[in-house]
Amino acid sequence: MDSSRHTRGPQRPYKSSCHPTMTRAILLGVGGILFLLVGCGDDGHEDRGSSPTPSLTATAPTPTATAASASANTWAIARRLVTLDADGASLILRSADRGATWNTAFTSVKKLRGIGFVDSDVGWAVGTEEILRSTDGGLSWSSQRGNATVPTLRLEDVAFGGDSLVVAVGAEAPPLPVSPSGPPLILRTEDMGLHWTPAAITGNTPAAQNSALRDACFTASGVGIAVGFGVTGSFVVRSANSGRDWVEITQEVVRGLPTTNPTAVACVGNSDVWIVGQGTTIVAHSSDAGISWVDRSAGISSVHELFAVSFTDPLTGWVGGTTDTGTAVILNTRDGGGVWVRQVLPETQSSAIVALQFATPLDGVAVGAQDSTTHALSLYTNDGGARWATATLGSPIFELSDVSSIP
Fold first, then answer.
1. Is the pLDDT of residue 256 over 70?
2. Residue 70: predicted pLDDT
3. What is the DSSP letter of 128?
4. Which residue range(s) make up the domain with 169?
């Protein structure tokens, strides 16, 4: 759940949404590779060193073997290569060792995009004309699509606010390629999904009618932020009443911050909110629950787009996406975005991190897709990203579009 997913630009995975106590994580790495020491210069830019840099042979995190029915702590949305139609079937994967190994738990005939768990038992997965709920840790799922009165929907992610509030964000639109986006849609429930009702969205830009929301999160104080974009530009909304009413704040976010196409958002604590996306400002931060925003992109170079963000406290966080040359990238900050350090990832083909979540400051998972292969990108770390290792998927998977992990 929470905090993150891929770029969807047009139709590309991206995601991140955030629970007050959870954030999305990225997982990248391979055991037995050589890691270059990467530091950060005094100017806050990535420092790869101008002189030969010593290398370390890293020992990958060691996964713990578990049965497919063991209690899970991490879940993901996946698709096989044979289902790459516009809205083809999806798989729900479970992991009992924080993303080191995965087992297929469920196959949906609908295309799923987002997943989130509030604890080891209860979670939701959403997508095209579908809302699924599990109460047994993802082993079985039941549809709640009939509990939503919206005639058509294409949902992207779920977020949690407080003890009972669940929201699902996306667009009130038929399956692709009939409509590219919009109008934006936020569904909410406070009774475990027995009733899903549309929230009121007030906007004053064209994007308020022609966009899709991609991600959402809630602060510990109950403020909600949802982000997305469409053919007419960025769209960001804020709620101060438990997700009942949402007011557009796009202008407040982009005023002086030329962020375009926001793809993911993460909330941490009572008031810190982070938005990532594509543009000159690819990381924006609010320390007052979305009232004002500042650019936290200084020092980030050669990054084309960020699709995922996860913070475990106001100072410590990770963002993931793709570089200008089309390779996966994960950056980490330990000072609230003042300095970003690029973490060392294993060799991959052209790829992107589209979703990530750190359940703890040490345990993180990152997922995505690799071009020209039938293998998804699935990484995990248990030391805060100092070492990333490649996960065992168990079956050929083309892409992973979202991930949720609990402490």
1. no
2. 61
3. B
4. 5-405
The distance from CA 117 to its chain's CA centroid, rounded to whole angstroms, is: 13
What phi and psi values does residue 379 have, to the nearest 5 degrees? -130, 155
Lowest mean pLDDT segment, chosen from 36-40, 57-61, 125-129, 235-239:
36-40
Pick from 186, 193, 192: which is nearest to 214 by CA? 186
Look at the chain and report how many structural domains it folds into: 1
Q: Which residue has the tokens 């290569």?
A: 81
CATH number at residue 309: 2.130.10.10
What is the reported pTM?
0.82
Gap between the Cα atoms of 300 and 46, Å rounded: 7
Mapping DSSP to helix (H, G, I), strand (E, B) and coil, where does residue 253 land?
A: helix
Strands 200-202 and 245-248: parallel
For the segment 27-49, what is each residue's pLDDT rounded down to a tens digit? 333 333 333 333 333 343 333 33
Within 10 angstroms of residue 400's Cβ, the number of other Cβ atoms is 31
For residues 288-325, b (16+ Cβ closer than 10 Å) or e, as one string?
Answer: ebbeebebbbebbeebbbbbbbbbbebebbbbbbbbee
- Beta-strand relationship, 233-239 and 245-248: antiparallel
Three-class secondary structure of residue 326 per DSSP: coil
